[in-house]
Amino acid sequence: MKKTALSLILVALLAGCSTTATQPAPVVDNSAQDAAARAAAAKAAADKAAAEAAALEQARLASQMNPLTDPNNILSKRNVYFDFDKYAVKSEYTPMIEAHAAYLVSHKDVKVTVQGNTDDRGSREYNLALGQRRADAVRKAMNLLNVPEAQMEAVSFGEEKPKAAGEDEAAWAQNRRADIVYQGE
Question: What values do phi and psi take at 80, rounded to 5?
Fold first, then answer.
């Protein structure tokens, strides 16, 4: 009986220690897929960084763009034209004058000179006086829009600074004007 029990234990132990042939786990080569995933992630990160850099550069350029020299900004318009022998500011120039006035009100350290001009018809004295009235008309319009007098000066060049040469209506029309000139320009 003892031998039988011992034999059964030995058989059980041998059975427990026996191994069955197992098949090796299949080896999958994921290195190609991992490399592609890493490359795609690197490209996405590079694209995101490039987009952020472009946005920062655009914001930097926008902050550096001077509204006075930006051709798309109304502040780059500086001439008020007048009819022959007149110095009343036409309503078509109101938005431009309002924009300049708003700019001056928001930039208290900026000053402008309004330069009155005439065509070459009339005496020198008459043209100087008419140019002064044109400059004063634009200055007063901006003053009514809360621009302090200390920020503005009105001067007359009469016929001395023509914009266009010639003895025809097209040239004269270009010379009957008041120019808004910012200090330092």
Answer: -115, 120
Domain layout of the chain by residue ranges: 78-182
113 forms bridges with which residues in the sheet? 153, 181
Secondary structure (3-state) at 41: helix
Q: How far apart are CA 65 and CA 50, in angstroms?
A: 22
Q: Which CATH code fits 78-182? A: 3.30.1330.60
Cβ-based neighbour number of residue 154 at 10 Å = 21
Percent helix, percent strand, percent coil in the chain, to nearest 5: 55, 10, 35
Mean pLDDT of the chain: 89
Q: Is the pTM of this model over 0.70?
A: no
Cα–Cα distance between 154 and 144 in angstroms, integer?
15
First to last CA, the chain: 121
pLDDT band at 25 (very low <50, low <70, confident <90, very high): confident
* pLDDT of 139 higher than 80: yes
